[in-house]
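Support case: user asked for a sample of complex input and structure output to validate their parser. Sending the pair below.
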Amino acid sequence: MAQEFIFKLAFEDFDLGLLPSPPPAIGSDEFKAKVTEFFANQFRGFGGKARVVIDDAEQQIEVAWTKDSQWQDPKAKAFSLLADGRVREALPILHTLSLKNPADTEVLYHLGICYSELGYFDRAAELLERLVETEPDHVNGLVGLGVAEISRGNLLIGEQWLRQALKLEPDNRWALRNLSASLMKQMRFEEALEAIQQCLSVAPDDTAMMVAYGDCLEKLGRGDESSIHYRMAIKTGGPEHITDLAKSRLSKKSEEVLRQKDEVRVDVVQFIKEALIRFQSMKLEEVQGLALEIAMLGSTGLDINDSSKQYTINSLAGEHSGLKLLSIMYAAFQQFAPDTDLGIDLGREYDLAKATLS
Amino acid sequence: MDLKELQNQFISRVETASGKPVLVQSNASFAGHAIIRLATKEQPASVLLYKPELEAVLPYLVAFQCELALRTLLAEPQSQFDLVDRSNMLQEVLALVTKHLEHRKDIGEEAVKHLASRFGHGLGYQLRSMPIAMRVDQIIFANHPSLRELQRKSLDTQLQENMLSINPKAKEIAPPEVVKPNASMNAAFAKFFSETFAEPTTNTAVFFVPYVAAGYGQVANELLEIHQNIPADPNSDRDLVEAWAKHLGLDRWFMTRSR
């Protein structure tokens, strides 16, 4: 029999008479452990490999058995699912394995991390605490526990676990990363900055830390130093949501400078007015093309506060300042997608330019 | 003799016994694995249908269906029988299924009727065929070692499919009065094959473990005891089916009738 043989059974359908007396309550941890043991014993005599999975969510037991030598045992199967990011599928297998052998710290660690990733932080903290009690030097376990505690809102307890991990492994980037996040939440920006710098020294491509660096500097009143870190995050690339965050921080900073005096920018009104005149002789597709070309250029960072810096684009001859291009792009988007969030509001200038023209 | 020749030999035996040719046809829409429909007096030929996906085990399927047909054809006329529904069967099954699914607003009235008919007739078909199938498989196993590999392959598939009767999903749509006899017969079938094919390398006993875990171990033993205590000749098949029906409480819905 080379094929895999699988069956499922509801908790309530399992014959309790097969378990030693007194029978455990259906669904209890003792029930799950004994059922797992029952099937393990049943299949042990058949050779091949068996996998018993207790699925708490569905209240059922799944058993798979095969003689295929290439078949993965339960632990290998769970780890392979985790490597594919299939945390929900790995969870019941790990849960069953931990019932079968509560002392298996490898299983305990991954189970704790699974719960943490799925947002069950109380359960995650409980399991990971059990892990570090058994194995106090389990650095990843300490980091996972720290993260779970922080996520539960226990910032100081989480910090303690992360610092303990750093004592054992001072360059652990995940400990440093999460420690800095926790310190920032506690408004302890000086200390956070130290952790961020240390993290970047071991993981120089960590764009999330670059953004955090900029944010920390802002909070410490050193906003003039922050742009370089946001720009570095954009230049490094990486996860899109982090790059977007860096861009939005830069846009916000630019707008703040632009709006320092809370006055209407006459230069912007003029740029928009010229653009609107130009649009009258252009087809809508051409306006869209122009807007998108500027948006593409802007995605790598347009300096709108330094008029000496000039840019060139294909859709418009000559050299232009960042502020002028931004004004043209804003006016263009109003023609075909006025609800688009461009990260900066030039509505007052646009209305004035339109009023002047009419 | 190769397997193709053996297959033709089985067909010839049925043709000789029935006096009519047997047409072997694959049919993609056929729900089971294979079936032989013996020609009535008016029909010119018998038809053996099989699922195209099972082409690889066709010699065994043909052997099985022909052996099954020969049991009917060669039984004494007074022993030949059909299993028929009692007049209350559909009505009672429908009432049970309707009650069982009353909370399932997603299953409409027509679907409930369809399910009740499928469950009721399915139980009848299983009762009529499963105990006899075990006899037939035992004969093939004992007399045709060259078919054993295909037989085992086909039975592995069937035993795996049967496992659905104890799956939690089965209980969701079928009432216990349907699930229990269905799973009980499947348990007996699994135990029978775990013993028939009991060789160190095959481990067919694994198929019985789930039924034991689900509490069907005892009823399987009882059905097999009945099976063993009734003579294995075709003239006793009616007694065997009636005894299983009585033991499972299915005699309230089905009865045998002489042909």
